[in-house]
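hey can u check if this looks right to u? its 312 residues, i copy pasted from the old doc so theres a chance i mangled smth
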Amino acid sequence: MIGDELLDRVEAGRLIAPPAPVLAMLSGGRDSVCMLELAVRARGAGEVSVLHVNYGLREDADADERHCAELCERLGVALLLERPRRQQDTGNLQAWAREQRYAAASRLAERSGAVVVTGHTADDQVETILYRLASSPSRRALLGMRPREGRLARPLLGSTREETTTYCEERGLRWRDDPSNEEADYKRNLVRRNLVPELRQLHPAARENVLRTAALLREEAELLDSLVDAELSGAGGAPAGAISHARFTELHPALRRLVLQRLADSAAGRPVAGAARFAEQVAGLHRGGSVLDLGGGVRAVLEAGVLRAECA
């Protein structure tokens, strides 16, 4: 039975192990429904609460909310509802919705000390990697989503969409399909509908090969991160979190890019896309000025021989 197998995987991964309570993000789709019941089975209903966000953007949004409420009542877990309303000038719709649900989850988790659980699967991982690879020229594109990022956990990244579907069917769990997942207007949907099936035509193990490559690169990224840590540890007289400009210019070009990216990300408190591409210009700062814009509201600053980054 796939139900026991998925439960064993979730428990073995220890991403939602005690003592922190669990806050499950529930859309009503099969993956989030599967993850919610697995969390209840692993931790007990009293340790699990649920966040559902009703954006009010589709005619059946209220029906999705009712479905989630009925499921939570059946499982005996508390349901927390958010109903944000979008203004006209909020830009990309999917980006706005994502920001709303994760901001709500972060706020609630901070209050209760909970770990936030999503239903992202191996299929979501593949789609994410392929989309980022096409739209974002950076090493991060190939790393995919991490199983754990701060309070956020993704226990189903090693399981497929087919398995979550089978789990729900075996357990008698109903789910709601979001029709927007089939709309060609959203580029991520094009990856799911067109690119992934084409890759499987090229090689039947395409999904598994993408996932294995990402896993290997994440292991190698840990090594690279340790090298960056060493360069920014305060060695050579520079304060921790900075680096002497002389040392920066001596670094291998690849490590130089990674160090600059870390400086920019740390200054902004978030990833600063493309900052690494300015590494050679930053290496030449002493010849052409002491400040360089890295994009994303961050700049590199050379002062008294020490290189750091700050918000502009």
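The chain has two domains: 2-209, 233-311.
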